[in-house]
Automatic annotation (TrEMBL):
Keywords: Disulfide bond, Glycoprotein, Glycosyltransferase, Golgi apparatus, Manganese, Membrane, Metal-binding, Signal-anchor, Transferase, Transmembrane, Transmembrane helix. It comes from Leptobrachium leishanense. Coiled coil: none annotated. Its main location: Golgi. Pathway: Protein modification; protein glycosylation. This is Beta-1,4-galactosyltransferase. GO terms for cellular component: Golgi cisterna membrane; Golgi membrane.
């Protein structure tokens, strides 16, 4: 009699374990689903990503200690010597002040910004009037229908870069027409067009809605491709996942060519930044990052973007990067330059980059 009773209780125990196991499965799946694709992408990248782990901390800084980004710009004055006999700038700029107070001024006009930045010349170019800069940086900003954001960014970026004593230029890459937005391809165009103007030593690829909050976040390049926007307010001043490469990043022309530039086939929002991170990894480089205290950014809020819907193909594309990155990039870039205007605060490059050929249109 004992034996069957024993096996019955065994069966019940087994059944309970099975039930428990299924419950745990369900909870895990629900969790993964909620965390969304970012986590899955992160896992996928994590398989071959061996970059440095960044310890992220949320540090709520005392905002009353933050400085005005224009605070000591008036200390920068022209030296009374010929331009070719200027001394080199010091290793660390004396005008760097640390945390910057970001408040979006109302009624701001481009003319106001020009007035506040008297040493900026046509095309949005600048070099320190008192020393020879050690760095030549081009800032490339993909753009369409974001004039208000652009104004705020220019208001902060110009004095920010001057405080770092950089020789710099700001390029807006404007996608003409109404086809789906393609951030990465616009950045490829920006790289190519900017290099025609000048032998830039460093390219900063910059989203239009991100304002840097600390001028110790240097806009110069490193030994490895740099991801600068590691602490955005939108993500609680933390990296959303380990291999995140979106927002603001920087590469030297050599690093850029080594990864064959950026992909041209990501139409719509998302995925292209992960593709770039994979390219960096596949070409044997790591990702460098500024300290978390410095890489802070404030994101300007905006509504839904017409013509920049989520890209439904991004996972498929990402899964193929390993096979496609050498064929798709700078070596396959095609576009039509519509205009190049050297405006007061930036160079406006307007391009026709075509449309997504892979989407079948039902007409
Ligand atoms: C922030 O710094 C100011 C000036 O040092 C100080 O008076 C204030 O108490 C600080 N606030 C907080 C919340 O620490
Ligand atoms: C520039 O301004 C910051 C405050 O934003 C200050 O800490 C720093 O000392 C200033 N630098 C110079 C050279 O005046
Ligand atoms: C783009 O869309 C706007 C508004 O819907 C329209 O006025 C304009 O003609 C379109 N441009 C092109 C090139 O189709
Ligand atoms: C850039 O130039 C194009 C073509 O002239 C124009 O439509 C667009 O508004 C300009 N964009 C900016 C941000 O200046």
């Amino acid at each position: 009699m004992d034996v069957p009773a024993f096996s019955t209780s065994m069966a019940i125990a087994k059944g309970r374990y099975l039930l428990l196991f299924l419950c745990v499965q369900l909870v895990v799946m629900a969790f993964l689903y909620r965390e969304g694709y970012r986590k899955r992408v992160s896992y996928f990248l994590g398989i071959f990503y061996k970059g440095p782990q960044v310890a992220v901390t949320t540090n709520a800084q005392n905002t009353s200690l933050r400085g005005d980004v224009y605070a000591n710009l008036s200390l920068i004055v022209k030296l009374a010597v010929p331009a070719d006999s200027l001394p080199y700038c010091p290793k660390r700029s004396p005008f760097i002040g640390g945390p910057i107070r970001v408040a979006l001024p109302e009624g701001l006009t481009l003319a106001d910004i020009s007035r506040k930045n008297p040493y900026v010349s046509r095309g949005g170019r600048y070099q320190p009037p008192d020393c020879e800069s050690n760095h030549k940086t081009a800032v490339i900003i993909p753009h369409r229908n974001r004039e208000q954001h652009l104004k705020y960014l220019l208001y902060y970026l110009h004095p920010f870069l001057q405080r770092q004593q950089l020789n710099y230029g700001i390029y807006i890459i404007h996608q003409a027409g109404n086809n789906t937005f393609n951030r990465a391809k616009l950045l490829n165009v920006g790289f190519k067009e900017a290099m025609k103007d000048e032998d830039w030593g460093c390219m900063f690829f910059h989203d239009v809605d991100l304002i840097p909050e600390d001028d110790r976040n240097l806009y110069s390049c490193e030994k490895y491709p740099k991801h600068a926007s590691i602490a955005m307010d939108k993500f609680g001043y933390k990296l959303p996942y380990k291999s995140y490469f979106g927002g603001v990043s920087a590469l030297t022309p050599n690093q850029y060519m080594k990864i064959n530039g950026f992909p041209n086939n990501y139409w719509g929002w998302g995925g292209e930044d992960d593709d770039i991170a994979v390219r960096v990894s596949l070409s044997g480089m790591l990702i460098s990052r500024p300290p978390v205290k410095f890489g802070r950014y404030r994101m300007i809020k905006h509504g839904h973007d017409e013509g920049n819907e989520q890209n439904p193909r991004r996972f498929n594309l990402l899964a193929k990067t390993r096979r496609t990155w050498k064929q798709d990039g700078m070596n396959s870039l095609q576009y039509t330059l519509i205009s190049k205007e050297f405006l007061l605060l930036y160079t406006n490059i307007t391009v026709d980059i075509g449309s997504d050929k892979s989407v079948k249109r039902h007409t």
